[in-house]
Amino acid sequence: MTALQTQGLGIRFGNFQAVADVDLALEPGARQALIGPNGAGKTTLINLLTGIYQPSAGSIRMDGRDITAWPADRRARSGLARTFQINTLFPGLTPLLSVVLAIHEREGQGATWWRPYSRSTAAFDEAHALLGRLRLDALANVPVAELAYGKQRLLEIALALAARPRILLLDEPAAGVPEDESGELFDVIAELPEDISVLFIEHDMKLVFRFARRISVLVAGRILVEGSPAEIGHDPRVREVYLGKTHIHLRREAAHV
Ligand SMILES: Nc1ncnc2c1ncn2[C@@H]1O[C@H](COP(=O)(O)OP(=O)(O)OP(=O)(O)O)[C@@H](O)[C@H]1O
């Protein structure tokens, strides 16, 4: 059964059709990239999947259940987690306390997270294990503000994982991360347990082709093509989108001169 599936999904903002007729399937254990030019509708699609936006058309299924009408918090509690394009961390907290807070949030103790401090050994143990998996254990007690940006983005993934999701949606996890750190960030994503399905938006094609097992190309709100990295790499329609139509028109114009 597909982990997440949309059918005919679309949203309009006034007269503007931002996402249209999207059939997207995320298989269990997927490492799937969502690519497309600026303004193609990638973040809007993620916002539809997580329930931030209600679609104007179509449906969304998670593990076969129709979740189209579910609010965002119910989707999150049922195993759908995301990260954002921008940094959403508390700079004064340490990674360890940030993850412990997220674990308490999951357990429904968000407002009293500081109180059972000494009694929450299990949360601390779990937080240490999670930070270890994301190669952040050596930095567990360093204030977030002092971490390299790539480490901060890894911590955001750790916070999403603290909810124990089965589906993880990553909106440009490497945005703003220097090139020498982005490889490590994607190594960690690739090593996530196979029972977590991952859909990630990424503009850096080197990272996309290195880490995605499947690629969906969104153009002007619609899926242009979907396939393996080899299929996408050789697809003339994708090349055209990424080369830029003006470039191709220019070549055609030039041939007539
Ligand atoms: N709440 C909104 N109201 C009106 N228009 C919106 C809204 N959200 C997004 N849009 C428009 O929808 C289009 C798609 O935006 P979106 O951010 O989803 O694109 P994107 O593919 O994620 O782009 P980028 O790669 O630049 O992040 C844009 O033209 C944007 O202005």
Architecture blueprint of SSEs:
Layout: E1 4-13, E2 16-22, E3 25-26, E4 31-35, H1 42-50, E5 57-62, E6 65-66, H2 72-77, E7 80-83, H3 95-106, H4 121-133, H5 149-161, E8 167-171, H6 179-190, E9 197-201, H7 205-211, E10 214-219, E11 222-227, H8 229-234, H9 236-243, H10 245-256
Parallel strand pairs: 4-9, 4-10, 7-8, 8-9
Antiparallel strand pairs: 1-2, 1-3, 1-5, 5-6, 10-11
Helix pairs in contact: 3-4, 3-5, 5-6, 9-10
Bound molecules: adenosine-5'-triphosphate (ATP).
Adenosine-5'-triphosphate is lined by residues 13, 16, 18, 36, 38-44.
Keywords:
single chain, alpha/beta, Rossmann fold, 6-stranded mixed beta sheet, binds adenosine-5'-triphosphate, membrane, ABC_AA/LPS_Transport, transport, ATP binding
What does this structure look like?
It holds the Pfam family ABC_tran. Keywords: ATP-binding, Cell membrane, Membrane, Nucleotide-binding, Transport. This is ABC transporter ATP-binding protein. With 257 residues, the protein is of the alpha/beta class. It has a domain at 4-87 and 165-256: 3-Layer(aba) Sandwich (Rossmann fold). Helix content is 38%, strand content 23%. It has helices spanning 42-50, 72-77, 95-106, 121-133, 149-161, 179-190, 205-211, 229-234, 236-243, 245-256; strands spanning 4-13, 16-22, 25-26, 31-35, 57-62, 65-66, 80-83, 167-171, 197-201, 214-219, 222-227. It has a six-stranded mixed β-sheet, sandwiched between helices. Strands 1, 2, 3, 5 and 6 form a five-stranded antiparallel β-sheet that branches. The radius of gyration is 20 Å and the shape is globular. Mean pLDDT is 89; it is low at 246-254. Adenosine-5'-triphosphate (ATP) binds at residues 13, 16, 18, 36, 38-44.
